[in-house]
Structure formats: structure tokens, C-alpha cells
């Protein structure tokens, strides 16, 4: 993403918020009163001083634009925290066919916010959005944390646009460093994006490594480079598939199908998709709706 001036940035924030508001309405995504209030506040703070509404004086709007409208000086985490909350709510409660386009402006806005953030705020945003240490008790993408839902979105069959946008967000949260990217989300989730963008996969990608769980310095733990799970958790826990329902197994097979197809499209490998092979041989039974 190219660097923008503050004037260009506020104009883009305005446009993204208008797109977001329209898409949320079309997708019938309901917001809590405090979330609606937050959107109105961001729209005002994100405007150029020449278009500031009477809610804030022109002088106040100029001051906000000179600093950063997405990080108010009194509480710099407030706006991003609420935007992420809206995003989380959409991921939880919106059908994929509506979510793909409805949440795109919101994800893009969060990416722009990270671009404008200072070092301290970037560190805070990484802790908010990247997998944490407790997420590594099981393979990344499992569970109901925000980071798990973001990872599932990157390879959801019906989220081609949002999935790529979320992958871009996670890559930027990893300082656009392929090695950090693999460490943060696991090779299984990172490989498709890296291949599609023509980014070389690190030679260490298939080697067990250490990570702090949120992209920041801290306690280091040995992790499986493919799944992102802690190695000590792998040794002690039962097989994840043993605890999966039939519906969960079907979703996992669908996810793997998408990952293999994306990998084949890059031309890096030429192998038959094992999920497709199982379907062709009649070994894959779809569950009734």
C-alpha cells in the first residue's frame, strides 16, 4: 500500500466509511448504539477541515487532521478498538455471501489505520489482531477468538475478496516480512498469499521455530511452522480430528481444497488435490443441509 499524505488519508477514510455504511446496511448488519455513534464520530474526525460538520468546529477538525483522526490524542486506542469490534461482530454474525463485500471497506480502513499508526500503536494493533500465545494451544484458526476468525476468512471459499484483504492486513501486521508472516500465522495460512503475491517462501518456513504469539517481543515458545500450534501442546493433546464433528470435518476438507487449488494456480507444484481425488473416488460424503 502506497504512502498517503494526511489530506489524502482523510479523504480516503471518508470514502471508506461511506462505503462501509452502505454495505453494512445492504447486508443488514446491525450495530450496537455505541458502534453507530463511533462510526459517526470517525466520519466527522476523518473529514477534511473544509468539509467538517457543525458537530465539531472547523478549528477542532483542523487540529484533528493535523494530528491523526484515527488516533485521538485523548484516547488513541478508542477508534481502532471500536472498528475492530464492528469487524469482529460482522465476522461472527454475517452470512459469507453478504460478508465478502460488506466488510471490505472496514478491513481496508483498519489497514490504512495501521499505515498511519506510530510505533506504539502498531505494537498495540498487532497484539489485538494477531494470534496470541493462548491461541497456540491448538492449531491456529481453531476456536472463536478474533484472530481465529480472521485466519478462517483468509481461505473461506465464499470470501475471495475479503479473504485476500485480510491476508494483506496480516502480512502488513507482520511488517511485510515473509518470515515473520509465517511465524505469526503458520505456513498453512501464509503459503497461499505469499505464492499469489510472488513472494519467496522463507527457507525456514518448514522448520520448527519460536514465536511470542502476537508479533511482539516476549516469552518465546517453540511452534509447529505449518499449523502454528505449540509443539508441547501437540505432544500432550489428543488428535484434533478425533474431537471434530462431521460438519467440522467437512468444513476443514473444504478449506484444504481451497488451499490446494490456490497453490496449484501458482504453478509451484503440479499435484492432484487430495480432496478432489477423494470426491472423484466416492470417498467424500457431503452432509445434508
Polypeptide structure, described:
It is a single chain. By secondary structure, this protein is an all-alpha fold. The chain has a two-stranded antiparallel ribbon with strand order 1-2. The protein contains 14 helices and 2 strands. It has helices at residues 6-26, 33-45, 58-66, 78-93, 96-102, 104-116, 119-129, 146-154, 160-173, 178-185, 187-196, 231-236, 246-265, 274-280; strands at residues 209-211, 221-223. It has 3 domains: 6-66, no CATH class; 77-204, no CATH class; 251-280, no CATH class. The chain is 57% helix and 2% strand. The model is unreliable at 44-66 (pLDDT under 50). One of its GO terms (molecular function) is G-protein alpha-subunit binding. One of its GO terms (biological process) is G protein-coupled receptor signaling pathway.
Rg computed from alpha carbons, rounded to a whole number of angstroms: 20 Å
Name the helicity range: 55-70%
What is the terminal-to-terminal distance?
Answer: 41 Å
- Number of alpha- plus pi-helical segments: 14
Mean pLDDT: 74
Describe the main β-sheet briefly: 2 strands, antiparallel
Q: Choose one word for the global shape.
A: globular
Alpha-beta content class: mainly alpha
Domain count, please report it: 3
Q: In order across it, which strands form the biggest sheet?
A: 1-2
**Low-confidence blocks of residues:** 44-66
Beta-strand content estimate: under 5%
Extended strand count: 2
SSE order in H/E notation?
HHHHHHHHHHHEEHHH
Note the topology.
Layout: H1 6-26, H2 33-45, H3 58-66, H4 78-93, H5 96-102, H6 104-116, H7 119-129, H8 146-154, H9 160-173, H10 178-185, H11 187-196, E1 209-211, E2 221-223, H12 231-236, H13 246-265, H14 274-280
Antiparallel strand pairs: 1-2
Helix pairs in contact: 1-2, 1-6, 2-4, 4-6, 6-9, 8-9, 10-11, 11-13
Amino acid at each position: 500500500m502506497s504512502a498517503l499524505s494526511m489530506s489524502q488519508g482523510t479523504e480516503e477514510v471518508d470514502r471508506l466509511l461511506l462505503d462501509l455504511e452502505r454495505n453494512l446496511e445492504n447486508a443488514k448488519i446491525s450495530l450496537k448504539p455505541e458502534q453507530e455513534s463511533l462510526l459517526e464520530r470517525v466520519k466527522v474526525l476523518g473529514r477534511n477541515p473544509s468539509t467538517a460538520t457543525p458537530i465539531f468546529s472547523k478549528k477542532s477538525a483542523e487540529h484533528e487532521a493535523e494530528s491523526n483522526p484515527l488516533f485521538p490524542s485523548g484516547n488513541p486506542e478508542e477508534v481502532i478498538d471500536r472498528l475492530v469490534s464492528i469487524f469482529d461482530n460482522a465476522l461472527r454474525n454475517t452470512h459469507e455471501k453478504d460478508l465478502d463485500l460488506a466488510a471490505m471497506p472496514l478491513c481496508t480502513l483498519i489497514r490504512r489505520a495501521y499505515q498511519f499508526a506510530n510505533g506504539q500503536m502498531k505494537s498495540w494493533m498487532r497484539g489485538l489482531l494477531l494470534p496470541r500465545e493462548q491461541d497456540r494451544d491448538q492449531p491456529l484458526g481453531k476456536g472463536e477468538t478474533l484472530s481465529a476468525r480472521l485466519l478462517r476468512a483468509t481461505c473461506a471459499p465464499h470470501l475471495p475478496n475479503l479473504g485476500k484483504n485480510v491476508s494483506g492486513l496480516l502480512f502488513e501486521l507482520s511488517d511485510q516480512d515473509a518470515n515473520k508472516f509465517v511465524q505469526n500465522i503458520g505456513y498453512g495460512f501464509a503459503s497461499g498469499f505469499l505464492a499469489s503475491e510472488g513472494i519467496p517462501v522463507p527457507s525456514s518456513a518448514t522448520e520448527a521455530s519460536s514465536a511470542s504469539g502476537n508479533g511482539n517481543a516476549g516469552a518465546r515458545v517453540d511452534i509447529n511452522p505449518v499449523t502454528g500450534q505449540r509443539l508441547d501442546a501437540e505432544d500432550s493433546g489428543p488428535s484434533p480430528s478425533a474431537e471434530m464433528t462431521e460438519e467440522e470435518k467437512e468444513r476443514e476438507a473444504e478449506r484444504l481444497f481451497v488451499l490446494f487449488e490456490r497453490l496449484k494456480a501458482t504453478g509451484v507444484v503440479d499435484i492432484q488435490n487430495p480432496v478432489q481425488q477423494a470426491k472423484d473416488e466416492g470417498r467424500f460424503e457431503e452432509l445434508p443441509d
